[in-house]
Each structure stands twice: as structure tokens, then as C-alpha cells.
Amino acid sequence: MLRVLTARAVSTDRQRSHDLSLPRHGTQVSPVSEPNGSPAPAADSTPIDQHQTHGREAALWKLAVGAIGIVFGDIGTSPLYAFKETFSAVHHPEHQLPLDELHIMGVISLMFWSMMAVVTLKYVTLIMRADNKGEGGSLALLALINRSSGQKKWTAGIVLLGVFATALFYGDSMITPAVSVLSAVEGIAVAAPQFSGWIIPIAVAILVGLFSIQRTGTARVGAMFGPIMLGYFAVIATLGAISAAQTPHVLWAFLPTYAANFFVVDPVSAFLALGSVVLAVTGAEALYADMGHFGRRPIRVSWLW
Asked: CB-based contacts of 86: which residues, under 8 Å, 6+ apart?
């Protein structure tokens, strides 16, 4: 910029006797004046890389919000039925968990540390590093294993394992939304028992609507459900904070000692409860499967922050 201004000054006023050459390094440059004597407008001092950084950060948070709407729609709604199912007597009537401090605090601690171990440690920290050119999921992992093995005799077994894992993922993708929506709609019967007969039709209508908009693509679905899921998480966070303020003792359940004490005092019930506790982490595989849609960093940001 200074070279251009110097050249302009030389060409327009060759009678000037003072030197208009560039100053040496470290010399302060005086502002250049326009022909009318007014100082020239200052150039934009904001570095280009700063604009690029802001653009990248904005794109990162936009993708993170979209990931919240798609990736965490499953795991975020799992607590709606996981905690209730753990204390249900349907599967093991002879080992129904009593509603006392030992079992309640033990189940909460088990759910929390299961999410830390499975989601944070397994998927966010380890599994998401094994991407196939940015893609995730069972088939991407299958391609990586098949490429690294180098032995054709293992190819058939690896392919069968990959197909089996993909089938499990598809089965979970069909079952979990139905269970989540039905569990949420069942709350209507608690607030208004006269509408208990409408629970199934309402759940079916919601599921048909949800699956019908999947064809619009990930970008539109994420833009639509991202703010909705943010509002949902804000509501349950507010309700949780209110409940924690009323009974602050429940925060001690974040200590792993309560989960360990649960196994020491009542090992049989604790082992059987694990079958329902793992429901709290259903949908965690979506973090890896949807990595190709959003990328590794937006998913990590949306989970950790």
C-alpha cells in the first residue's frame, strides 16, 4: 500500500524536492495526504486471517448446532425411559429395585459413568479417530480393518462382522425413535388421563412426520431440529437445576463410589440393572456414524460443551 501511495505522489507532483522513497525498517511513517490536504483514509487494519478465523468459528458452531439436532436426538432422549425402565418390575419382578437412597443414587451414578466411559472415552476420544477419509460408521470401520489386515483369509469374516454391525445399527435406528416418542407421549396420560386412548395415534402421527422429512437431507433437518434440541436441553437443564437446588444431595451421585457401593451391597440387582442402565447410552453410535455429515470437531464440541 505504501509503495502505491509513493508512486502516486511522484507521478502527480514531480516538482517536490523531498524524497518520497520508502523509509527504512523501524522508521515511523507519517500519514499520506490527499491532493486537497486532507489525510488519506486509513486502510483496514484487521488481518485477513482474523476474518478467516471468525468465519471458521461461525461455521464450526453452525455445524455443532446441526449435530445437536441430528446426532444427539437419540442419546438426548434416552433418559426419558432409561431411568424409569431401571426401576420397573416388568423384566425381573423378583428383583425389583426399591426406591431407597442406595439404589437411586447407585443407578444415577451408573448412568453417568456409563455415559462418560462409552460416549466420552470410547467414541469421542478413541473411535472417532478411526475415520475413513472423514467418513465414519460400521462400513468405514470395515474398510479400515480390511485395508490394514492384508490377509485375504480374514476378508469374509470381516465383511460379515461389518454387515452384522450395520444391521444392528439399522435396527436401533428403527426401534429407538418409536420407544422415545412413545415414552414422551405417555406423559399426556399423567397430566390428562382422559387422553390416554390417544397416546398411540399421536405417537404414530409424530413418527410418520419425523420420518417423512428425512428425505429433505441432513442440512435442512439439522437446521430445523438443532434449535429445537437446544431448547429441549435448556428445558431439562433448567428443571434439573431446580430439582438439584431442592435436593442438592443428589449431586453426590456423580462420584463413582456410589456405583461401586451398589455392586458391593446388592450385586445381583446391580448386575440386572445394567441391562436397563445401558439404555442411557443408546444412540451413542450416531456420533461415529454421522461423522461424515458434520466432521469430527463439531460433534466433539457439541458433546463436550
From this structure: 97, 107, 273, 276, 277, 279
